[in-house]
Design brief:
Chain A is α+β, with helices and mostly antiparallel strands. Helices cover 41% and strands 28% of the residues of chain A. In chain B, strand 4 and strand 5 form a beta hairpin. Classes of the chains: A alpha+beta, B alpha+beta.
């Protein structure tokens, strides 16, 4: 993992702060949406082999509801917001105007609500990052998928596939109260974006 | 009857083989392709979890041969031959190569699934290994496993349930 060998502690701190700012704003948006306080864990910055990335959400076969968007502009990358089905149903139940009938199946209305939620959260994550770094970052139209975590996350790793066998991800977990994990953000900046992010924040980077 | 079947797992950008009785499995295939080769006489099954179509695009220092369609298949064959497999007896089955997310602007990266499938086929043709069956494309993830005694490939997906090839 040539390019990451020189990632100093100060760089990791900066990336963690980047995750902190983005997820913090998204958590605020989510807590307004459900009208309940939402906590978040301190973001983790990790360099993980491909195989272990899906382990972060319960294994490659874990079914997740995923919003994916490609970040374009000065510092391209991939942004995922993942929820487990139980968490997504819990979230849907707390929204007014939606009646959740089944625990395993999703109505068109629920899918539409979930993609809108993913859209709002990813959007607020990204716009606070753009403000914080002063970099131009624009999202593609978000896409929603309900499928195996491995299949979904591997899609965000292709740029890394050409450089090595792992990827750097910034992940943050949301909690409602302290009972259940509501969702998880994964920001996977393209390898070429690190230098730009660090430069924008005035941190030296080889 | 409870059988103690040996289960061999294949990770992303990885490959492995199993001989005799046993199951070889890879989980959560999205745009990656799970390519299997089977020699029924020697009862050897091989599986590669191919991530990218071509090693030409590689920029890594040490090339991981198991990651690319064009390099993984020859390595897999070699590994099977070491166990007594013979290339002329091998048949291929594959699954995966989905497009997990649909976008209007289809850059090359977004088309990675179909390109993985295309390049696997091209490589099989070059090596004159017949492609016996495939379950590729779509927009969903798959978990696959091959039973080494039968050569049957089981494919499981959230949307489509279980399928046998």
């Amino acid at each position: 993992m040539e390019i990451f060998r020189n990632l100093a502690e100060v760089n990791v701190d900066v990336l963690r702060e980047v995750g902190n700012i983005g997820a913090g704003h998204a958590a605020t948006a989510l807590s307004r949406l459900v009208d309940k306080p939402i906590d978040m864990a301190v973001p983790a910055v990790r360099m993980l082999p491909f195989d272990e990335i899906a382990e972060q959400v319960g294994g490659p076969e874990q079914i997740v509801i995923a919003t994916f968007l490609r970040v374009e502009g000065d510092a391209p990358g991939n942004l995922f917001f993942l929820m487990k089905p139980s968490a997504s149903k819990k979230l849907l139940r707390s929204l007014s105007g939606i009646e959740v009938v089944s625990d395993d199946e999703y109505t068109e209305m629920e899918i539409s609500a979930l993609s809108e939620i993913g859209n709002i959260l990813a959007g607020s994550y990204l716009s606070s990052l753009a403000d914080f770094t002063g970099l131009f970052m624009t999202p593609t139209v978000p896409a929603l998928a309900i499928d195996m975590a491995g299949a979904i996350l591997s899609y965000g790793l292709m740029q890394f596939g050409q450089m090595g066998d792992g990827a750097l991800l910034i992940d943050t977990t949301f909690l409602e109260g302290d009972e259940e994990v509501e969702g998880q953000f994964f920001l996977i900046p393209d390898p070429s974006s690190f230098a730009k992010i660090f430069r924008a924040l005035g941190v030296p980077y080889e | 009857m409870i059988e103690d079947l040996q289960i061999v797992k294949v990770g992303m950008a990885d490959l492995n083989v199993v001989q005799g009785s046993g199951i070889i499995r890879t989980t959560g295939l999205g745009s990656c392709v799970g390519l299997t080769l089977y020699d029924s006489i020697a009862q050897i099954a091989g599986m590669a979890h191919v991530m990218l179509p071509s090693s030409d695009t590689a920029r890594e220092g040490q090339l991981n041969l198991m990651k690319y369609a064009d390099t993984a298949i020859p390595v897999l064959i070699e590994k099977m031959e070491k166990l007594g497999g013979q290339r002329r007896r091998m048949g291929a089955k594959m699954a995966g190569g989905a497009q997990m997310f649909a976008f209007n602007s289809m850059s090359d990266t977004m088309r990675i699934g179909p390109r993985n499938v295309e390049n696997c086929k091209e490589m099989l043709m070059k090596l004159s290994i017949p492609l016996l069956a495939e379950d590729t494309g779509g927009n969903f993830g798959r978990t696959i496993e091959m039973n080494c005694q039968t050569g049957i490939l089981h494919i499981r997906s959230v949307q489509m349930g279980v399928k046998e090839l």
